[in-house]
Amino acid sequence: MQRTPTRRSFLVTAGATGATGLAGCLGGTDGGDAGDGADGTATPTAPDETPTGTTTGTPIPGESSLLLNWKPSGLHVPYFAAKANGFYEEEGLTLSTIETGEGSTFSAKQAGLGNTDFAISSSDQVLNVNSRDLSPLSVGVVMQKSPAVVFSTRDTFGEELSDVEALAGKTVGTGPGMVRMLTTLLLEEAGIREDVEMVDTGYDTVQQLLSGKIDAAGGVFGDAISAEAQGYTVDSIPVADTIPAYGHVVTVNRDWAAANDEAVRAFLRATARGAAWAHRRPGDATELLVEANGVLAESREQQRQKWETLAQEFMLGDAVEQNGWGWSEAEPWQVSHDALADADALGGEVDPTAVWTNDYLDTDSPYIGSYTDQL
């Protein structure tokens, strides 16, 4: 199958499309194949460790690259695990580089412009950029649940934060963007929005919480892990337990994907396999991440905790159990669309059913259709 060439130079002027940088895009504010895992605990052998291969049975011509939504972290373990273990190559796909991103807005725009084959973005930014004359397409959901959480420390809150209602009469700080919108929806759903003072803490939310300037924070679970790493006891309430919304998604240019069907399918199969491998071996998987990104060596335990939290609490769900890894359903996209529209954060009309597809997910692959059986 002949692949369509892709422009490789990133357009610094991509912002001319008019897509607003919703700074709260859901990526956080911080930026061996068998046997025992690195932590010494027994890990089961996968039922099938043989590659599924391309439908043509031949290598896919050309090279591809992956653009992350932000700096590499524990949230990106599946891609580094899949690359280091040769899973992309076994699927016939040459993934030459995994590149640091500049935010989910930037990643969605680069996919829409055709400047990268694969990009990790967020559901809200796929919607946002689609409302502004570009057409990035989500082909797989990595985070079945939004990573947004409301959290506090016992020192600051004075007691355990066990339910949303306990926030009545308190001050909650968040940065701008989707995290703020979802936090607002959570408070409204609990019927206490009018009883909570919400303040904009910009990109200093965690430190303002730790210093006692706010009672609780709206952020992502990586922020709560960062606070824990500083020695605090942290309680978190996942927004996704109440408000259905997606987090990270795999994004492509829709025209490129239509012309390179096998490459997209191969990427998704290998990534799902990488996620399953890393789920069973979190210690080994974190080491592969650190080997590829030496700057993370000092925070390897935080990165491992981020990955384990993502793998166990945010990557799974009913849609994965019933249909397979990466599966999209309509409701979370509609919820995100409505939140953006209510906040006047879209550039124009966008159909939330038209920005995603499940068509490239090979449910016959055990790592897609039977993902939970591989864990």
From TrEMBL:
InterPro entries attached to this UniProt entry: NMT1/THI5 (IPR027939), SsuA/THI5 (IPR015168), TAT_signal (IPR006311)
Low complexity composition-biased segments: 39-62
Alphabetized SUPFAM superfamilies for the sequence: Periplasmic binding protein-like II
Domain SsuA/THI5-like: 76-285
Region (Disordered): 33-62
A Pfam family of this chain: NMT1
PANTHER family the record matches: 4-AMINO-5-HYDROXYMETHYL-2-METHYLPYRIMIDINE PHOSPHATE SYNTHASE THI11-RELATED (PTHR31528), RIBOFLAVIN-BINDING PROTEIN RIBY (PTHR31528:SF15)
Protein name: ABC transporter substrate-binding protein
Source species of the chain: Haloplanus ruber
Lineage: Archaea, Methanobacteriati, Methanobacteriota, Stenosarchaea group, Halobacteria
